[in-house]
Amino acid sequence: MTNIYAAIEIGTTRTVLAVGEAETGGRLALTRHAEIPSAGVKKSQIVNIDQATQSVRSVLREIERRQGESGDKLTIGNAFLVITGQHVKADPFQGVAQVEGGKVGVDDIEEVVESSRGMPMPNDRETLDVVDQFYRLDSLVGITSPKGLSGRVLKLDVLHIHADANRIKDAHTAADAAHLELRDPLFAVTCAADAVLSDAERRDGVMVLDLGGGSTGYAVYDGGRIATANVFGVGGDHVTNDIAYAFQTTQAQAEELKRREASAVVGQDRDASARVKIPGASALVEAKTVSRHALETVVNLRMKEMLTMIRQDLEARDLLHRLNAGVVLTGGGAAMRGLEQLLQREFGVPVRIGRPEYVDGLTDEDKPWSFAAVAGALMFAHSHYERKSLFDGFFKGLFK
After folding, report:
1. How many helical (H) and strand (E) elements, i.e. helices and strands, does the chain have?
2. Which residue from 108, 199, 207, 93 is spatially nearest to 148, judged by alpha carbons?
3. Mapping DSSP to helix (H, G, I), strand (E, B) and coil, where does residue 43 land?
């Protein structure tokens, strides 16, 4: 039987659930995906369990409704958890092993790999991933395969990506109440990268920038390996809040204004002297207008602030000059008008929107880049568990 997988992301502005199925030939297809507005989540962290549970329950019902329309009676029982937020951190670590016999063998490699997994971790942190970077042998660095090389001390540089264990527990609590079992927690940014990046981009140097409602995460790849990752607690909701404060609107009005009229660049190909209509908060309230120039200035200031934070972070890590393949945008905020131009000005590199290239089923989706993270999570499930039967071990209970 064909393997089937599910992934869920409980985000600040929306809760997304996707189902993937392995096609003949090994390629993965998203057979169902749905999103509903989130409740009980701020800055990518659950702050109200009951409301978050209702979000999970609602997106489950939407998927099941769509399955029913197609004659599919299966009910989702478990899903991989896709997470992000400022609590996610990436720390470098190094494993060390003494080479027996003066030439690196399989046992030496196994020992250094095991050592690299031994980074001390506080009880309130949970590991999401340990990413191998490069081996070192004595003074020789940048080794991708040390087997057979002569030397005395073998080292392995890795990146430990970890998150607040309590935030993951909160997601489990909300999902359990909605009768959904959560599987491995996966980092949204690296999942998105898996869905949108080519091998050539990874080799040449590229940054994936995942723009969510409550946070913005990035991961930099260089030489084919992930070099670093980070998450800032600034996202699309902060732009909405700025608009609401500047023009004294409701959050709903500000969000609609952002989606319909906002630009990250002031006066980009439009009449900045024009005025933009703000719909009335109700039928009894007269609509008003605001200056387009003023609106774009508010948005530009917030977006430049966020990009400055990222730029400074990359400069501190000596990685900004390594982005030869540029920046790839994913997440719900990726398509903001003018964002590509602003990034090109601020970073001086090519910029593109990342569409998931290695899964099928998103061709007709208006904003496929916003599903990059869950698509990558399904790719992870498929690549790591494709040999398992639907009813064997890990997948037992995926569908009831």
Report:
1. 10, 19
2. 108
3. coil
Q: Which pTM was predicted? A: 0.91
What the chain holds in terms of domains, given with CATH numbers, is 4-86+166-192+355-395 (3.30.420.40), 199-354 (3.30.420.40)
User: For residues 125 and 168, what is the distance between their CA atoms, to the nearest angstrom?
Assistant: 10
Query: Which structure tokens are listed for 163?
Result: 């998150």
DSSP 177-215: HTT-EEEEEEEHHHHHHHHH--HHHHHH-EEEEEE-SS-
Length reported for the chain: 400
| DSSP assignment letter at 1 | -
pLDDT grade for 164, boundaries at 50, 70 and 90:
very high
The strand ranges marked E within 260-345 are: 275-278, 288-291, 327-330
Q: State yes or no: pLDDT of 286 exceeds 70.
A: no
3-state secondary structure of 60: helix
Q: Are 32 and 63 in contact (CB under 8 A)?
A: yes
User: Which amino acid appears at position 288 of this protein?
Assistant: K
Identify the pLDDT of residue 272. 62
